[in-house]
Amino acid sequence: MPSSLEPVIHPDVLEALHAGRGVVALESTILAHGLPRGDNRRVAAQIEGAVLEAGAVPATIAVLDGVIHVGLTSVELDRLCGEDDVLKLSSRDVGVAIARGRTGATTVASTAVLAHRAGIAVFATGGLGGVHRGASETFDVSADLGVIARTPVLVVCAGVKSILDVAGTLEVLETLSVPVLGYRTSRFPGFYLSDSGHEAPWQVDSAAEAAAVAHARRVLGTDSAGVVLANPLPEGRQVDPGLHARLVAEGLALLAREGVHGKDVTPRLLEFFHESSGGESLRANVELVLANAALAGEVAVELAALEGGEHAP
Ligand code: PSU
Ligand code: MN
What we know:
By secondary structure, the chain is an alpha/beta fold. The protein has helices spanning 11-19, 29-34, 40-53, 74-82, 91-99, 108-118, 135-138, 143-148, 166-175, 207-220, 241-258, 265-276, 280-306; strands at 8-9, 23-26, 57-64, 67-70, 87-89, 104-106, 122-124, 154-157, 180-183, 187-190, 193-199, 202-204, 227-230.
């Protein structure tokens, strides 16, 4: 199937980039593979709404029929949230999907790469991929980490998915020279939990402070790694830690029983959580994604102000 190699950039996104206004890239795997059908389309609109409300322009990224799209129309979001054979595309898969004319959602890794190429410096997700438990045996370490280590975007997340080896993930981020900032906390958030039990290496207390970090790194050019801005759910909104511990234990046992591995691990676990938590994991997941989109919007606006003029036409 023939396909264009040029990304299609939504006119609103293009205009904002040219005017030097804040733009936030949004990943689409969370929509196609992380949230249940029926909820995902509504949440997609809410995520974009949260970015807009913060004064920035949302750019959800996906590959449709072999073409990269940066910023989706309403009909394109319908497709991504409703079609059956939407692939999960990590960074390594994007070229293959394009060459083969396929449709797929982008993970943190591929979204970061495509956002950076489009000139977008800030993006929002739910939780970062990372080092899986038992990775010393399975070698399952998300490509998200390697890509963030070489792609200068600021990623707003609620920490890493709590099914992961959080301590191991923080160690790898340190090795890869990726700065990790807690947003208004000295603790590293645990996705469904406000606190993963680990310290955040740095704390920032405002979107402006986070933007200043990204700006300083870009101007100094000391290294090309991204920045992780970790935004916790308020304690009163986290999943009950007892329920959470039970879900993680049962979910990991289920994966072992079903022999799930590779890129199917995260979608299967999230599906299990959503089915088994009486709606709690979904509630928390949606809340944290919306909070991250709003914060990313604020950071994008602050960063655009700091870099004002440099991107002006
Ligand atoms: N966080 C969520 N839901 C998700 C993911 C993260 O709340 O669906 C996705 C992201 O797209 C992330 C990916 O990049 O899981 C990581 O997958 P893997 O561990 O296979 O690299
Ligand atoms: Mn993996």
